[in-house]
What does this fold into?
Amino acid sequence: MPLRFAVIGQPIEHSLSPYLHNYLLREIGEDGQYERREVAGDALTAALAQLKGQGFRGFNITIPHKQAVLPLLQEVSEQARVIGAVNTVLINESGLAGFNTDHSGFSAALAHHSYVPQQGLAAVLGAGGAARAVIFSLAESGARRIVTFGRTHERAVRMAAELSAAFPDCEITAESWDNGTIMQTVRGADLLVNATPVGMWPAVAETPLQIDFSCSHLVAADLIYNPLRTNFLLAAEAHGAKIVDGLDMFIFQGTGALKIWLGRDFDFGFRQLRAHLIKQLEEHGKH
Ligand SMILES: NC(=O)c1ccc[n+]([C@@H]2O[C@H](COP(=O)([O-])OP(=O)(O)OC[C@H]3O[C@@H](n4cnc5c(N)ncnc54)[C@H](OP(=O)(O)O)[C@@H]3O)[C@@H](O)[C@H]2O)c1
It folds into this structure.
């Protein structure tokens, strides 16, 4: 019997996850299938029972269920509990176990670009689940100072307080969302991360920050991978930054999930997988 996997969420038709996982399953020689399932906000409990009943080994979770799923799980990893979001569930004899591989995916993407978080100041735009995973990743990797900017300031303040409690050696603060304050912080930072959806297809002309200053001291990372080069990354690169797009994090969160489901490590060809996903984005990413 082939192993069965899925990604659940709404909307789900644009998810790249089936292309990632079906490619990986083939490459590592596992007999398995990964599918998309459209699951509305009020249908989550029923969807989990169905996946379990149908013998699925595991599934990914995306918007709008990443937080809502937590109370429905029998086990939650310490990292997912602190982040407050689950993107990967393993189904085993004891029930449903939740994990977060967004944070480890982000760490792996930075490592892939030789960025070392211990050195400087990181500025993070956004205060949602992905921003929480990014801050967790940086603090876990030894970052000493992180400043976060949230459109809803109270949400960012709450996030900074909760993550500070988990990482007392890292100074995590929240500032209000205005271009001037952000720019002032970014001038002294060595990492700038866009963890908002601003600039994502189809609203590709948007950017969370007007970049018209030198960025030669910066690594600029965007979690968005559609488009691969957001306006944010294009402007940062034009002003001298080294850039990291969202596809690398996406690849590493996916390989992290598959390792959990299979209970084993595996090697894969990063460049070939990335090229495969870019092709899928070109073919299916703009419909
Ligand atoms: N590459 C990957 O593997 C990966 C993994 C996870 C997520 N992502 C991407 O990361 C992004 C964020 O995801 P998420 O799950 O964190 O979403 P989320 O929970 O909805 O949070 C989004 C955050 O962005 C802020 N925001 C939204 N629109 C904004 C605007 N116009 N101006 C300023 N701030 C704005 C929101 O502010 P409020 O608090 O005011 O609502 C919130 O803080 C998405 O694009 C997602 O696709 C990528």
About this structure: The pocket of NAP is lined by residues 102, 105, 126-131, 150-152, 155, 195-198, 200, 208, 223-225, 246, 249-250, 253 (CB under 6 Å). The domain at 3-100+250-284 is CATH 3.40.50.10860 (Rossmann fold).
